[in-house]
Fold each of these.
Amino acid sequence: ETGVTQTPRHLVMGMTNKKSLKCEQHLGHNAMYWYKQSAKKPLELMFVYNFKEQTENNSVPSRFSPECPNSSHLFLHLHTLQPEDSALYLCASSQTGGETQYFGPGTRLLVL
Amino acid sequence: EDQVTQSPEALRLQEGESSSLNCSYTVSGLRGLFWYRQDPGKGPEFLFTLYSAGEEKEKERLKATLTKKESFLHITAPKPEDSATYLCAVQAVDSNYQLIWGAGTKLIIKP
């Protein structure tokens, strides 16, 4: 594997389900990011981890819970989501904060 | 307030018809401006970083330029495979992690 990988690529869940998104970066980077991308809207930064420590949390609802066990892996735990949470969730990494960010392919999430 | 505006929202060109995409920005101090390409159903792919006014970078048919207020992505003799959404983002000097993103320009190149 190279670059940034994300699983699953597609996810359909009900409002009462619990699921997790996984991101892994193979670039030796120290910072990892979760973004939400909705149609025709700018990317929304959700969380940032630098050296496994959370440094940004952009007022994201508590139904989204991030986890970063090491510099290579990032998870986004989802529970009791709303239909408006349907979007493309992108993971990115960079060498450090402020450096160029490299993105994974995203997880297309549909909440029914 | 820091913000990024991209125009046009969508652009349709014939193959070989050169044009430019615009990214206007307002930021307290610019650390860097980034251009990405995004294909449908995929994550953004990094193209260029520009740091100071007057800087230019090229890659194949793409050339990015930067002034103190805006950046242009010039596309010369485009091919259908250049069709994608092009995203612009800026980073302010007082921000370690936050990028301010534009909504993108959807480029369609017809054969």
Amino acid sequence: DTGVSQDPRHKITKRGQNVTFRCDPISEHNRLYWYRQTLGQGPEFLTYFQNEAQLEKSRLLSDRFSAERPKGSFSTLEIQRTEQGDSAMYLCASSLGIGALNEQYFGPGTRLTVT
Amino acid sequence: AQKVTQAQTEISVVEKEDVTLDCVYETRDTTYYLFWYKQPPSGELVFLIRRNSFDEQNEISGRYSWNFQKSTSSFNFTITASQVVDSAVYFCALSGQISSGSARQLTFGSGTQLTVLP
């Protein structure tokens, strides 16, 4: 059983460029989450999918951010017109469940550096 | 609003010492879940334990033990006979109930950097 995978692992981009990250969850997991982690802080919730439906979005997710999970499997997170403040580790997690929140399994993250 | 406080930013111990990591949480939900994750230098968060608010029994798993005290809103984590491989950042996290809108996300503390010296 493979874990959560994320691609790319590192991304360096210039301010104003668009970037897209991909997350492949554990295959049988119906829930998928995106978090952002900056240095010295815990992860902060960005958004949540149950199957292909995006059910929650944090206020942290500005209009420049968009996430999709088109077939209820992999997910993409796009940031348009990147800013230096977007530099962070973007973490994807997945879990199995319908009711109560079960434990989330995290991927290795994508480290974004905006120059 | 939910909040998790890990007041210990950094802890350093010598191998074989016992160490306790503190976690204090705030929530208005009557049903909630508490978690501990480990983030080693490689960066990937590793799930350690999940505990619901109705289960106040302490839990032991090998060298790890957890003490949940609802009266003080604390969920502390103890590593017995620490080892160098335990060096990592440890995060405590909380999720709430659907009616409060916090059921589907984890609220993390800022983490405790544990360094175990040989």
